[in-house]
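Reopening this one. Same input as before:
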Amino acid sequence: MTKVALITGITGQDGSYLAEYLLSKNYVVHGLIRRASTFNTSRLEPIYVDPHNSERFFLHYADLSDASRLSGIINEIQPDEIYNLAAQSHVRVSFDMPEYTSDIDGLGVSRILEAIRRLRDKKIKLYQASTSELFGSSKPPQNEDTSFKPRSPYACAKLYAYWMVRNYREGYDIFGSNGILFNHESPRRGETFVTRKITSALAKLYNKKQKHLYLGNLDAKRDWGFAPEYVENMWKMLQQNKPDDFVIGTGEAHSVKEYLDLAFDYVGLNPKKYVEIDKRYFRPTEVECLIADSSKAEKDLGWKPKIAFEDQVKILVDADFRKNGLEPIGEGDTIIKKKFSKKWWKGD
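Same output, byte for byte:
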């Protein structure tokens, strides 16, 4: 029997990769997109160009702030699985827009859970995109039993969502799983996020179309993985016999400065000549270090990352060189072919 999935946030990095992955497994995929005056579906182009998807891929205009619209769509398509990836996902921006972030990232999840609860004759499985930012100032490494100490409006909203999933799971027997994913990057990452900000600017600096790169805290350390690998774990969580929460990461932490130095060294440029520190990009409260302990996911989901930190830096740089009309160095492309030869992934 063909399964039906609903993905919120389908136009984002994770949403577009997850849609490709589910389509490769013969799902019918529905996605929610926000109405905008400009096209915001560029990441979905690999799906559109495949004629085999014309009767298996559908988009609906909706927003997590609109409970009636959400409920109507869920009731109409009767999905087997819902993947809630929609969010105001930029941590720094959440300090400027705390109310909006709370409404979408927090209350939006409540609206989805209520829609599922009211559809009593359909057992829907929910994946909630949680985040390593929940751990905040807790000492690394962090796992499912580590205390949550959020340090941003974004993390606080996501913590509310995390506990709402747990409460509906226990109170209403809803199959809801939280994926506590640590940072995961790809060529589809938004350019306002530090990894793509670096690799995108690097291509422009190399091409002499940009003179400087402005960054914030270079000492912050994160556990950086490769996004296409992470979306496979989202699916695996909903294939378990019982709902549960899982930490997904690589088990390594690297600073922003390490990322910066690796990227510049890869193309033979000296970051000291181009990079300047701008206090506007510092957070009021910083999370210093996040390192995943994914032992539970290794045991239950068979999780083991294939793309190393150094690999993903090269992959992103090669992709941004291509997007800027430059010949890529090529090592990143070779890594993809050797280590991530998944048929479902359609590239940059």
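So the earlier flakiness isn't reproducible anymore. For the record, Residues 97 and 153 are 8 Å apart (CA to CA).
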